[in-house]
Design a protein that fits this description.
alpha/beta, Oligo-1,6-glucosidase, domain 2, Immunoglobulin-like, 6-stranded antiparallel sheet, 23 helices, disordered N terminus, binds alpha-D-glucopyranose
Length: 635
Amino acid sequence: MRQALLVTQLHSGSHDVARILSSLTDAQAEREFLTGAELHLPRLHELFVRLYGDRPDGFERLASIVDLARRSWVSRPRALKALDRERASDPDWFESERMLGGVCYVDRYAGGLSGIRDSMPYFRELGLTYLHLMPLFDSPEGNSDGGYAVSSYRRVNPKLGTMEELAELAADLRRAGISLVVDFIFNHTSNEHEWAQKAISGEAGYEDFYLIFPDREMPDAYERTTREIFPDDHPGSFVQLDDGRWIWATFYHFQWDLNYANPAVFEAMAGEMLFLANQGVEILRMDAVAFIWKQLGTPCESLPEAHLLLQAFNAVLRMAAPGMLFKSEAIVHPDEVVSYISPDECQISYNPLQMALTWEALATRDGRLLQQALERRHALPAGTAWVNYVRSHDDIGWTFADEDAAELGIDGYPHRRFLNDFYVGRAEGSFARGVPFQENPRTGDARVTGTTASLAGIEAGDAGGEDRVILAHALALSTGGIPLLYLGDEVAQLNDYSYAERAEEAGDSRWVHRPHRPAERYADRTDADTVAGRVYSRLTRLTEVRRSTPEFAGNELVAFDTHVASVVAFLRPGDVGFAVLVLTNVADSPAEIDAVTLSGLAPEALDLVAVHPVWLGAGLTLAPHGVRWLRVRLR
Ligand code: GLC
């Protein structure tokens, strides 16, 4: 027995790697795959030793995953292998100034996958290069958390289309220069997934796929240090099964967390990941990354093993689908957000801090917290990028660092309360029409939902509403990274309160900002007498300018201190001695920047949006909510 254990357990060092590689040669693996495996297997092995070193099945699992990757590579369509090569020869492709993302729900925006295909001329009109289709997999009827409860990763929800259609759409999009992005919801499955069904019925090999406990002892112990994520649905991190046992469910009660301490779970999920890779998905949005590893006595969020797991998935991907990217979805403290971003882990990431602080600045008419964040938290490692957005399908959480705020004399807790009150229209002088989300009376915690137009003041008829929509997008388009539009926001779509009448949505106010495609507003987009027309033409002017401004590529940003609290300003360096100066005034009144402040720049500048010269020699006045993109020469 002991002998057998020694044979199967993972060894550190190169012994295991050599064994696996030699078995591959025997198995006529393609030379290309071998080259990739030689490069990435040592790293995967090391990660496996750290994650699973003491498990007797560790080695077998690793060997079997490498074989899975080999088979996946062998069957990878030729066009995708060509794409892998193209990406390898242009590894910074996603940092280009031409990148522009869009995100939508397949059913709500277009009825189904064929409707998405019919929308392609519009996506081209917008200049999209990245299209995130919200969860489109098979999921439970009724409430499925908007598809974030997945019952099969290999089956498209039949109401939307088929997997074949998805693969064809991916190919069409690729030919149009648009990368398909889908969610990889790997922290949990729905309770209807076959793994879940097998686990609760005790089928051999599946008992350890989830975290199931016979009584409250362990759940109580874990909950001493975990946080409640969806308190409206259930308190704590566990829900009770019909047979009285308790199962880990961080989000909704029908979303059961997987047990990644079991390497069989890693292998199973790697299989689903590679399946999606070969359908032509180019970017996987790694859902809820902070939650994937649990350990008693900790918050069970962003543990070191969560990073090791992501790196292990990434290593598998590098062997079998090397052109793909991971996008991290970590809506947590800014220190934690960046910890997921590296070429070896997630190459791109939502930028929740910039998003939240853009709204913070608009509410307070004070840009200092955002300016400080750009100054100290915007830089990223080479080979990675932010995904900058104004709002997503989720709520807005105020994830700024209290210690940063304290430096500016701002107390985090009451400030968050103010922001919540402001954006749900409870604070005096508020222009916003947001709705509270997951208000927790016990902790005072809450978040905010609403479309960009409704949050910015258009719904309330505030005079600054349209300008604020433009300003918020102008920041997402100019700070560096992939700008991501929530489709519908570019025509100033308003909140849709009808969710409250549908049983499966009524308890989740995020539906207020996930409306159906606003056909009338899209029809108005060429009519300058309409809100939609004005917002659309101003916004698309900015996207057009971004596309032709090489300074907007990459992530380099130098904060520019204007000494005006309402002004957020930075330089995006370009050719030696030149830069684009971005100036943004979040106040409802004009802002004056004096000549001395601008004296480090040559007085002749070019306004890139209006395309006319600007004289900086006498200072500059920014309009209320004004945005200027100026090409300047540094002196
Ligand atoms: C992510 C999604 C969110 C979902 C949750 C659980 O945070 O963005 O919509 O509710 O994961 O999957």
